[in-house]
Amino acid sequence: MQHSVPPVLALSVLLSSSPAIAAGPDWGIFEGKTGSLLHPVSMASLLLFSLNTGYQGFKWRRQRTIGDDISELKKTLPKAPVEDENGVLPSPTAEYTRISSEIEDLQKERKELSSQGNRDKHWQSGSTLAFVGTFFAIEGPLNTYARAGKLFPGPHLYAGAALVVLWSAAAACVPAMQKGNDGARSAHIALNAGATGLFAWQVVSGWPILLKVWEKTQWP
């Protein structure tokens, strides 16, 4: 004769399941020290990469605007000395020599900048920064949730979300920049400058979190 299990007894057995089942899935290395260090190490590296990307952008901007500086200097350049009736060429004035030298230096600088391919380097670096930065900005909270089963809202989490928004807004300025919109260029620079400052602050706010993760997690 078969006996049915009382519903109350079945429920009590289910609720008293092993801790492994209650804790949720085992994420393995992703919730260990190795996976937990992916976010801080990658983001610290991306901060340096962000600074280099900004420097490339500065050099590309300099290459584009240096022609205006040359044109302005040429407007102030005195007339070149000409031969007199005896075929003697007077020595150039000190002002003519100085301005000519400045123009020549700027032309050399423009030629050197042009040979560096800063525009393509800046665009490629910016695209990489936006993709990899967004990826690890999302990976960090996912790793926290895998380890702790919840997130911990605070300045570091909110600033990280704001950083992704700033990157996206800066990237959204690019189409208008390609059409020569100076306002979009200024906005792009301001947004990226703000993002870099916020990024640097994230190192400060993330340091205590890193120490706690290092203490609480195990290898691998």
TrEMBL record:
Q: Which UniProt keywords apply?
A: Membrane, Signal, Transmembrane, Transmembrane helix
Species in which this protein is naturally found: Triparma verrucosa
Membrane spanning stretches: 158-177, 189-210
Which first-to-last residue range defines the signal peptide? 1-23
Q: Which InterPro entries match?
A: DUF4079
Q: What is this protein called?
A: Uncharacterized protein
Any Pfam family: DUF4079
